Amino acid sequence: MRGVLAAVLTPMNADLSVNREAFAAHCRRLLDAGAHGLGIFGTTGEANSLSIAERVDAWGALVEDGIPPEVLLPGTGACALPDAVTLSREALALGASGVLALPPFYYKGVSDDGLFRYFAELIERVGDDRLRLFLYHIPPQTVIGFSVELIGRLLDAFPGVVVGTKDSAGDAARIEALCKTYPSLTVFAGSERFLLDTLRWGGDGCISATCNVTAKQSRRVYDLWEAGSAEADSEQAALTEARKFLDGYPLIPALKAVMRHTTGDELWRNLRPPLDVLDDDAARAIVARL
Amino acid sequence: MRGVLAAVLTPMNADLSVNREAFAAHCRRLLDAGAHGLGIFGTTGEANSLSIAERVDAWGALVEDGIPPEVLLPGTGACALPDAVTLSREALALGASGVLALPPFYYKGVSDDGLFRYFAELIERVGDDRLRLFLYHIPPQTVIGFSVELIGRLLDAFPGVVVGTKDSAGDAARIEALCKTYPSLTVFAGSERFLLDTLRWGGDGCISATCNVTAKQSRRVYDLWEAGSAEADSEQAALTEARKFLDGYPLIPALKAVMRHTTGDELWRNLRPPLDVLDDDAARAIVARL
Lengths: 290, 290
Fold this sequence. Notes:
homodimer; about 290 residues; alpha/beta; globular
């Protein structure tokens, strides 16, 4: 797993169930636009607002509908160990290349030892050598997170199983430190604004919500970097500027508003509470900026 | 539901499954000590570290083992609406008098409108007139919470269904405001240190973790207050002092250490990660203070 991954939005019906056809169509569109992979059922995909059965059914349907399982990086985050075990096993059965694992996020102020024990138990209970864990660091939602030291402990203890991280702390210095401290760790920035820097620091790419809209342009940055082209910098600058269309708006509702505009499909208005639908004026303002 | 409720600890086996016998025995001990009710599977009960099936199986076993369902206030908090619906329906099927409902706690910075919509959907989907919702406000863990205004909106929109709150913000002024702003709301303080004040403000009691240890003494404060006795104040002062034995230690591990000491049963050492077992020195220090 490396390159540009979209943190995929989950299209929903008016009754808040996942719309299977729109989900597969959106994933296909993102791959066609150049995404190397698809981070499904993460924060952007409203994963924690769906039950385990809903997530497993929906990712199974995606593969049935022709999305190759090896491009998928499903979110398997849960507060409860048995839930994380179930989701991880199901992701392996699906044929996904890895799983994106949140820390158990209910309790705050927990220790690195407690988090280490959670992942040790998870790995033992999943009991499958094919497991590839990407540690999902997103303190804006979980408050607690993975210290750089804890990532090192997990890498040492579970080589070949703990393989990567997605870093959504929004802190370039931390991403650089991870790339340089742990050369074997696959490092994805949580935003494509850090894409070129991450690649240059020895990291592997990005997994980003805004890639639902910017997949093509993000891929161009990746390809220019890979080709050693001097144009990579200006393309990254243009990408960083382009993704500002959402600034000041709530991320997931705003991205769904853009999808509604792009596809003309009203189902993109639907979000699970506690997330709110964006009002029409805000949606129009975002589309105008875009 | 009113009076002294213990936020019940969940005893676990070495493999981290719930120990049925110890759970029923502990609940019986708390009722014998004078607890009016039992808040099972809240924060103290490590509810969010257990799967839905584990919670439902364990509370079913409690009732089979002789704990009267009407004294139970099960936690039904979940990030995902369908999970909260399942837990609420199961609690009703059990015969519980009410349910303690967390706000969906993954996303931060959500609006009152989004939270209102979550509870409106929950109530509609449960679709049962017997539902009695107690809103569980615990910002130290969930970060987001129920504004005083939101509680008023929910009371107005769902009279007889939204009936109460447990307030674990640790803020006496907020508890007083809730008691006085909404006289029809059942208000439980999240700590027995506010018990007498809450009763005097027109509230209803407390639901507290430390009542796993102080149930008897807390009940005495309640009874003295009910009898109009002048001794209520000195008894509350003694209770407030007594519950300081845990100060400076992590709450749930420390309470389990006390239970281990009291019962002599080693299973009280077991906690689900990310919570940590207390080391023996700390456990001894707490027991000495007690």
